């Protein structure tokens, strides 16, 4: 293909017109597949060796559904860029088994090194369930989606989160305790340009104003 490989750490396949992920060297640290025609991405892809990727860019492709629960070979991945796709389903955990089964539905230690997850400009209508499985997650950007509300458990167990960006969605309702246990939030809770119609005193009281910036302009109120 027209991909450019520096022979050691960087694989650049941006603007090459590929529709599938090519072979990735185990030594690659950064892989850029942006601005292509990729519709699916399978982390494991039937292979068992671990990739050394720390930075993966899949932005501006044609991905509509993505399951991260299979990404057991990306143990050191730190940043995942999924901006500008058509993602309406982002699965972070496996559906719970039928009643009576002894198998657990959750995936333990999913992407254990992931710090930044960016899913801007997609078609999500809810916050992806299971963000708390990403135990190192510090930044999550979901600008310009179709998210309509923030529920109590959307950010449950996201103990390392520092930065949440939810601007330009369709959010009308936020549970009063949605951000209560996020003790490390210190950059921004960005809720600009949503559809909020009621004040948020209880939510704001639960946040640490000495460290935190909250952006709320351009809502319906």
TrEMBL record:
SMART domains: LRR_TYP. PANTHER family: ANTIGEN BSP, PUTATIVE-RELATED (PTHR24369), INSULIN LIKE GROWTH FACTOR BINDING PROTEIN ACID LABILE SUBUNIT (PTHR24369:SF213). This is LRC66 protein. GO terms for cellular component: plasma membrane. InterPro entries: Leu-rich_rpt, Leu-rich_rpt_typical-subtyp, LRR_dom_sf, LRR_TM_domain-containing. The gene is Lrrc66. It comes from the Eukaryota. Keywords: Leucine-rich repeat, Repeat.
């Amino acid at each position: 293909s027209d991909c450019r490989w520096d022979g050691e750490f960087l694989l650049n396949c941006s603007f090459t017109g590929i529709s599938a992920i090519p072979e990735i060297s185990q030594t690659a640290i950064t892989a850029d597949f942006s601005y292509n025609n990729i519709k699916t991405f399978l982390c494991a892809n039937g292979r068992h060796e671990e990739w050394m990727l720390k930075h993966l860019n899949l932005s501006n492709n044609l991905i509509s559904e993505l399951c991260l629960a299979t990404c057991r070979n990306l143990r050191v991945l730190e940043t995942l860029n999924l901006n500008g796709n058509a993602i309406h389903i982002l699965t972070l955990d496996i559906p719970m088994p039928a009643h009576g089964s002894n198998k657990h539905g959750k995936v333990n230690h999913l992407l254990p090194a992931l710090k930044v997850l960016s899913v801007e400009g997609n078609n999500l209508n809810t916050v992806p369930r299971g963000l708390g499985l990403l135990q190192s997650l510090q930044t999550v950007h979901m600008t310009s989606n179709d998210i309509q509300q923030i529920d109590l458990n959307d950010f449950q167990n996201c103990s390392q989160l520092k930065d949440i960006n939810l601007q330009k969605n369709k959010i009308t309702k936020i549970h009063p305790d949605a951000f209560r246990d996020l003790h490390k939030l210190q950059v921004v809770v960005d809720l600009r340009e949503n559809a909020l119609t009621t004040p948020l005193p209880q939510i704001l009281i639960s946040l640490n104003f000495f460290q935190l910036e909250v952006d709320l302009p351009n809502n319906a109120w």
